[in-house]
Amino acid sequence: MPLILVTPLSAVPEALRRYQPSHLISLLSPAYMIETPEGFPAQRHLRLAVNDVSDPSLGEHPPREEHVTALLAFARAWDGSAPMLVHCWAGISRSMAAAFSILCDRTQQGGEIAVAREIRSRAPHAAPNSLIVRLADAQLAREGRMVDAREAMGPGESAEEGTPVEFPLAAFGL
Fold first, then answer.
1. Could you give the CA distance from residue 96 to residue 159 in angstroms, rounded to a whole number?
2. Alpha carbons 107 and 33: distance in angstroms, whole number
3. In total, how many domains does the chain have?
4. What is the pTM of this model?
5. How deeply is 14 buried, as exposed, middle or buried, from its count of CB atoms within 10 A (0-12, 13-18, 19+)?
6. Phi and psi at residue 92, in whole multiples of 5°?
7. Angle subtended at Cα 50 by Cα 46 and Cα 56, rounded to the nearest 5 degrees
8. CATH at 41
9. CA torsion, ordered 140, 169, 83, 97, to nearest 10 deg
10. Per-residue pLDDT tens for 16-69?
């Protein structure tokens, strides 16, 4: 079954073993970026060295347009025959924004709210990084609908670390 799995960094080894994903996306600060796990094909591991900041003027290494371009291009090359694993440090912000962006890219224009609602129902702790969402919204020509959908999700439940969350593409009509 095609699915995107979002986890915190601490759950990556178990998720790799259990789900055997074909693609891996790491969104970590440059200081904590991981190497490609042993035995995993390096060409199917996207490493985006970004900090979890929502305002580029307030932190070093913010997500930028080129990061979102790479994210979307990488995800478009995934055929869904095996899971895609997306993680950040806590599995709450950067990785949830990446999953939201990928799912919106695969969903027709106007489906952003439905995607956000499904994410919220499966991940009460999700708090997608607003800068990544804004950048993806612009690249996908969603005219603010992704930003509005993210805002409509609300802040999410407080958590220091998220739990692994499955997002089967079928749940999104894909």
1. 14
2. 30
3. 1
4. 0.97
5. exposed
6. -120, -45
7. 140
8. 3.90.190.10
9. 40
10. 999 999 999 999 999 999 999 999 999 999 999 999 999 888 889 999 999 999
